[in-house]
Structure prediction request, 50 residues.
Amino acid sequence: MDEVNGMQTRADKARLVIDTVRRKGEDASSDMVKFLCELDPFLCSSIGLN
Prediction:
């Protein structure tokens, strides 16, 4: 959490959270990416998730 709070851009925060979830496995990663893209399609596009 401290690492995320220290980041300035939403894209950097999203990348860190996604990388953390990816380490938990494929199902968790897929669910997180899907949820993130539903919440903010522009962000997902800008960081190359779709």
About this structure: Residues 2-46 form one domain.
